[in-house]
Design brief:
This protein is α+β, with helices and mostly antiparallel strands. The strands form two sheets. Strands 2, 3, 4, 5, 8, 9 and 13 form a seven-stranded antiparallel sheet that branches. A six-stranded antiparallel sheet has the order 7-6-10-11-1-12.
Length: 313
């Protein structure tokens, strides 16, 4: 695999940054994740960090060197992160579990799979055009889908912050997945939180990436999103990957072939929140990050994938 990747986050007008982002890759597979801890509920930053670490830990154990069933892996891994948040609630004796929206994507063999819960988004961009994007699990998206409001009314609607689906909720979250999509050289996959996309129009966003190096355009757009949202600016986070694109303005590209056989690179970049709690076995629930706990999660994922394969025609 050969790709360029860059990520950035800003705190906006909030007291803390509850967004989290990161990616991992082996010789044959890449995982990207963006999570937005939900304000209005307890410890949103812990929710986002827990989801990120759960996904990354399971990917590291399974991607040797690729993920056997990316679609099944994404669904089961996000549900594993949901269970980890419920375990945290019990261990910490909280009245509710921390909650987070999330979007995650696996890229391997020239194809991309993605899944999400909530209003963190993935955009698939090509030549300044949005080929597709995830649909928010939110009150305003349901109104748009029903034809009750126009798409351009979303950003000013009084219910724009009402999310209908997330990890950590009392009910089992709905994980919405996309079928495998074949990537072309130069395609860009953008994962971002609502604090980012709410400050930038979809057309302008797609056009901004055309012919621009990610390390230049991502910080500019993050700053732009915060500036446009002004005194109500939410945390703004974006992670973008350009697939097999020629280097732009000397920007670096990564090649997974440079990794030794069996090796894996991971970078989990946390938001600039000095007050965020570091996850430990004590704060994340007893045994939550033990090898035995991780192996149990992996066994459950593999069993679920095998069941789905048996059901497939």
């Amino acid at each position: 695999m050969r790709f360029s990747i860059f990520q950035d986050s800003r705190i906006g007008a909030r007291a803390t940054n509850q967004d989290r982002m990161g990616y991992c890759f082996s010789r044959e597979s890449l995982l990207m994740i963006v999570a937005d801890g939900m304000g209005g509920h307890v410890r949103g930053e812990v929710a986002a960090e827990t989801a990120l670490r759960t996904c990354a830990s399971l990917f590291q154990r399974i991607a040797k060197p690729h993920v056997p069933d990316p679609a099944g892996f994404l669904e089961e891994t996000l549900l594993a992160a949901h269970r980890a948040l419920l375990q945290y609630q019990v261990a910490e004796r909280l009245h509710e579990a921390p909650r987070t929206t999330i979007v995650a994507c696996v890229v391997q063999q020239g194809r991309a799979w993605w899944a999400h819960a909530g209003d963190s988004r993935l955009y698939w961009l090509r030549d300044g055009v949005t080929l597709t994007r995830t649909r928010d699990h939110s009150r305003v998206q349901s109104l748009v889908s029903a034809g009750l409001i126009r798409p351009e009314q979303q950003d000013v609607h009084p219910d724009r912050n009402k999310v209908l689906n997330c990890l950590g909720s009392p009910h089992l979250p709905r994980i919405e997945s996309a079928a495998a999509q074949r990537l072309r050289p130069g395609d860009t996959l953008l994962l971002c939180t609502d604090g980012f996309w709410a400050g930038i129009g979809e057309t302008a966003l797609a056009q901004a990436f055309a012919g621009q190096a990610l390390e230049k355009i991502i910080p500019e757009l993050v700053e732009q999103a915060v500036a446009r949202n002004g005194r109500i600016a939410d945390n703004a986070t974006a992670l973008a990957m350009s697939w097999e694109a020629d280097p732009i303005d000397g920007a670096p590209t990564l090649s997974s072939l440079e990794l030794p056989e069996g090796a894996l690179t991971t970078t989990i970049a946390l938001g600039p929140d000095e007050g965020a709690r570091a996850l430990t076995p004590e704060t994340a629930g007893e045994g939550a990050w033990s090898d035995d706990a991780i192996e149990r999660q992996i066994a459950e994922i593999r069993q679920a994938i095998q069941r789905s394969r048996r059901k497939a025609p």
